[in-house]
Amino acid sequence: MKRHILLMGLPGAGKTTVGKLLAERLGTSLVDIDALIVRRMQMPVTRIFGEFGESKFRALEVEALTQAVAGPATVIAPGGGWVVSPGAFESVRPTCFMVYLRTMALTAARRAGAEATRPLLVGEDPVERMRQLLKEREPYYAQADAELKADVKPPAALADEIAILARERAGW
User: Fold this and answer.
1) Is the CB of residue 58 less than 8 Å from the CB of residue 33?
2) How far is CA 83 from CA 28, 54, 123, 136, in A?
3) Strand, coil or helix: what is 114?
4) E-assigned strands of the chain?
5) Out of 39, 50, 54, 107, which residue is the most buried by the measure of CB atoms under 10 Å away?
6) Which tens digit of pLDDT belongs to each residue from 96-125?
7) C-alpha to C-alpha distance for 101 and 124, rounded to whole angstroms
8) pLDDT tens across 11-48, in order?
9) Residue 144 three-state SS
10) CA–CA separation, 58 vs 37, rounded Å?
11) What is the spatial distance between Cα 66 and Cα 89, in angstroms, rounded to a whole number?
């Protein structure tokens, strides 16, 4: 049975970038959970956080992810924090082949900071904040079906590796 390929990792790990390349290699589409939420709410993520708070955003994230896994198998790139929403990880586990794009906090902060759209990094030391996020989320990320080091390998090489894993272990 073909399973969704769900990419996990810190903000800046490359989930969306790698996800687009992976979707091309697998002949499917990428479901970018943040993009779905932005379209639905008709405002950027930073504004959603500002007006409604993180808990509302996480609820929207879980709802969008639940809808995505109900559809045909595809590549899914949720935000880095959905894993800490109670029950979210367990609810998608049966239908997803999860790949953890591991990055060091420094690398993630550098990449995510370049975008300036990460509400959890605004007004804080980005590297220290990434360390905190990693500590909080690592127990979930560590349960992925596969783990790839996303610090040094270019996105295309990561997409190639995940495509092989998808064919070998996720029914693609």
Assistant:
1) no
2) 24, 14, 23, 10
3) helix
4) 4-8, 30-32, 75-77, 96-102, 146-149
5) 107
6) 999 999 999 999 988 887 555 555 555 668
7) 23
8) 999 999 999 999 999 999 999 999 999 999 999 988 99
9) coil
10) 10
11) 10
